[in-house]
Amino acid sequence: MKKQLLVIGNGMVGQHFIEQFLDAADGDSWEIRVLGEEAYAAYDRVHLSEYFERGQAEDLLLADPAFYQGNKIQLHLNEQALKVDPQARKVTTSKGSYDYDQLVLATGSYPFVPPIEGKDLPHCLVYRTLDDLDAIKASAEGKTKGVVVGGGLLGLEAAHALQKLGLEASVVEFAPRLMPVQLDAEAGKLLRQKIEDLGVKVYTEKATQLIRPGDEHRLCMEFSDSSHLETDLIVFSAGIRPQDALGREAGLKLGERGGILVDNACRTSDPNIYAIGECAIWNNQHFGLVAPGYQMARTAAAAINGDSSVTFTGADMSTKLKLLGVDVGSIGDAHVTTPGAQTYRYLNEIDGIYYKLVVSEDHKKLLGAILVGDNAPYDTLLQYALNGIDLPEQPEALILPSNAGGPPALGADALPDEASICSCHNVTKGDIREAMNDGIMSLGDLKTTTKASTGCGGCAAMLKTVFENELESRGVSVDRSLCEHFSYTRQELFHLVQVEGIRSFEELLEKHGKGGGCEICKPTVASILASCWNEHVHEEPHVSLQDTNDTFMANMQKNGTYSVVPRIPGGEITPEMLIKIGEVGKKYQLYTKITGGQRIDLFGATLDELPLIWEELIAAGFETGHAYGKSLRTVKSCVGNTWCRYGVQDSVSMAIFLENRYKGLRSPHKIKMAVSGCTRECAEAQSKDIGVIATENGWNLFVCGNGGMRPRHADLFATDLSDEELIATIDRVLMFYVRTGDRLQRTSVWLENLEGGLNYLKEVVLEDSLGLGAELEAQMQQVVDTYQCEWKTAIEDPSKRKRFRSYVNADEPRRARIQLVEERGQLIPVRDITEEEVA
Amino acid sequence: MNSAHLNAAQWHPVCRLDDLVANSGVVAWLDAQPAALFWLPDQEPAIYALAHYDPLGKAEVLAHGLVCESQGEWSVASPLYKQRYRLTDGQCLEEESIKVRTWPVRLVGAEVEVYY
User: Fold this and answer.
1) Beta strand pairing call for A90-93 and A97-99
2) What range(s) does the Nitrite/Sulfite reductase ferredoxin-like domain occupy (chain A) (predicted)?
3) Helices A723-740 and A490-500 sit at what angle, rounded to 10 degrees?
């Protein structure tokens, strides 16, 4: 009989425990059961407020639903544990009871609601779970004001969430400043100013005495200083308390202020019961962050498997985060409690930046730090503090602006092997070196193997530095050559073509390459030449460079025939045009299917049929759809405010405009766009390279999303843009991608690899930090101005048309050699016999 | 063997040089099957004839692949799954056991002739 492992709680830490346990355990000897009282499997509570942008619990889930089944884990959701009997080793739940050999309590915490009269009135809520968010959303519907009680980290998050729901948000804090635990008075003041600039009202030193029904709004809060505040809803976010009820009733030892006491192995006072995360207390300390919870999860997983080498001995509580878009960081002894400690401070009221360094008595070690306004120095400072690295001669240089000489760089060399690079997954510099000793040579593989940077992602830049430094120290120079013919990246080639005005592959090869070219460099260069000069693919110098799809301006299918996709901008089409497509499909016996991009694909055309088909389509007013090119595919749209009751802008007209503007643009990979007429997002714009969502005031722009093999939600890039601003911004983003993207790199991967990420892209595009804005727009305008329908040009030119002969020496119809069968009233390629057997 | 198959192979004119496309391929019909003709004006020999049928992709497509050079050797990459076939002898560079047929080809004046 297998041993029974029971885990109560399926939050972030509980989930991490399961993953760690599966890694460490002999899977066949344990039966794992997980109880979760919420309706959802473990989700990302750190990014809870994104639920309002994305609206789907699924987007926040930590594990694929198949994870539990695949690992034979019995996941009981919606099932609350009621009682633990340590003697009988049995847990009773709302639905049954289960025996255990080992029990792990990962019950987390609950929001603390101060004992204020009226706190239980309707529309007094908390901010902790997805259900809480649903309740907040329902309460906010049609209302205008919301108040958060608590100006700590979670309270500010909650205020952000209220803003996202369109409420005027206020924060009420008992202490004299925001985030009193992490920040000092100066930092709190600056943060307050920044947050007020963002439209959140802040009230400090306010003690709420009474909540009563309001006069103009639902509720009225009365404060001890006799002032009052009216609001439609209140969210309590005044701290958390360990959820220790099960442990308390089971007679487990508790901490002085609650929480289940654990030792260095995360074991409770009962040797068969472990407690991890926010329900646990270690050395009378409570850890309300996810990284220490993960460390506890690892410790318990190892202990249950008999491995005592992993222990939990406290955790670093440094934090770096973005609150309502404002960088805030706090490291170590931020409040200068160490005897003899002294500080360096930098305050820049103009740009809203505050830094404080707390150094040891001898000025040699960094003990703590506070950052507001810009977290750029955080990673370096954290390494100094955690690893006890000697500070440079003048420590203030670490926080002074770079025009004062710049901070002395902390090279990855200076870090000891024990230096923690990724605190979510406890990966040290030594782990990274070891992985590289075992042959890992790419950043991607390194992340997969060590899991570094796959948690919160905050250490991505540091990881890359360490990785590159290690490569260098091994004498490895990273070869980024496109192929054997060009020792340049796509970006470098683009630059050469543009700056030297190179117009052909031959010329580029002669000046900067060697050999004859291949299937990698030819299409890449063809695409660069097209982005720069926009000449027809059939012009003499380009004709032999194209992949077959580009050459014949159609998509080759498995049997050697081609498919034809006319452009249907925005998915809008007249009945007459639809009939015309039907007529053409019928005449040439083409298999016809609606695509995911709101247009129609006609399959099974032979080479010699392509110009004939296009002659008819062009006569009917169609244009090429570029379905074959690394270029703009479609701009999907919903019907918008033209018809829809909920639409707030004309999404169809915008989609048609965008599709017509960017059609034909050659890029590193295909580009998809969508325009939704309201936040219901029926056009699924957030899964596109460029996604546009209508707002009451204009358009919100999302960038670098992806569906397909590796889905990625697009990032919100700019809000409430006018039509003109929207176009200019998209021009810049797209042209910057076209210039700097790698070969066959979609925008999603491009952004992830862009040093500085989304913020850098925003700087370049929105703040014009490189001074390239006008140039990018002009280059895009040039592409727009030189657009031609490639098919129209091709069918009108006999020399180009010649290319579409099936045989140079026979008029025999090509179709005779292609075997087709009928299925559901259409012709399809005859199925492979082996394929049928398998099916 | 019957006499129909005893017809000895000989040179057949199949098309003119200006039917070919420089550094790319076209298809010519050879009696019972299609051949892919490639023209590399700067190489010696300049014209190559390979089977048009790609045995790995299982379709007649090779003439429409990209012509590529590696270590001085010229090949065509199938447009279906990108395996390369050497122009001189039809050897697949990715799969040793796969080779497609080639034919001798020559230029007589402006006339392209294939030996089959």
Assistant:
1) antiparallel
2) 557-619
3) 110
Q: What is the pLDDT of residues A721-750, one digit of tens each?
A: 999 999 999 999 999 999 988 888 899 888
Q: Which of A169-173, B3-7, B70-74, B81-85 has the lowest mean pLDDT?
A: B3-7
Chain B residues inside the 8 Å CB shell of A817: 34, 60
Task: Record the tokens describing residue A670, joined without a space.
Answer: 């295909």
CA distance A507 to chain B (A): 15
For each of the domains in chain A, give its residue range(s) and CATH number, in order of start: 3-110+242-304 (3.50.50.60), 124-238 (3.50.50.60), 316-410 (3.30.390.30), 490-546 (no CATH), 547-624+789-839 (3.90.480), 630-788 (3.30.413.10)
- Tell me what pLDDT residue B54 has: 94
Output the CA torsion B19→B20→B26→B31 (10° steps). 60
Q: Is A532 annotated as a binding residue?
A: no
pLDDT recorded at residue A457:
64
B11-115 CATH fold: Rieske Iron-sulfur Protein (2.102.10)
Please indicate if the annotation marks A644 as binding a ligand: yes
Name the residue in chain A with its Cα closest to that of B24.
A544
pLDDT, tens only, A432-455: 989 988 888 788 788 878 888 776
Q: In this complex, do A516 and B69 lie within 8 Å of one another by their Cβ atoms?
A: yes
A789 is in an annotated binding site: no
Q: Where are the beta strands (DSSP E) in B1-116?
A: 11-16, 24-30, 33-39, 47-51, 53-54, 59-60, 66-70, 73-77, 84-86, 102-103, 105-108, 111-115
Q: Output the 3-class SS for A570-582.
A: HHCCCHHHHHHHH
Chain pair A-B, CB pairs under 8 angstroms? 88
The partner residue sitting opposite B82, judged by closest CB among A515, A519, A552, is: A519
Tell me what the pLDDT averaged over chain A comes to. 88
* A678 is known to lie in a ligand binding site: yes
pLDDT tens digits for range A189-230 = 999 999 998 889 999 999 999 999 999 999 999 998 889 999
| Set of chain A residues whose Cβ sits within 8 Å of the Cβ of B22 | 543-544
Gap from A543 CA to chain B (nearest CA, Å): 8
The secondary structure of residue A604, as a DSSP letter, is E
ipTM of the complex, rounded to two decimals: 0.91
Q: Are A140 and A162 in contact (CB under 8 A)?
A: yes
Provide the strand spans (E) within A174-318: 201-203, 208-213, 219-223, 228-231, 233-236, 240-242, 260-262, 273-275, 280-282
User: Maximum CA pair distance of chain B?
Assistant: 45
Instruction: Domain ranges for chain B, please list them.
Output: 11-115
Q: How far apart are CA A483 and CA A727, in angstroms?
A: 35
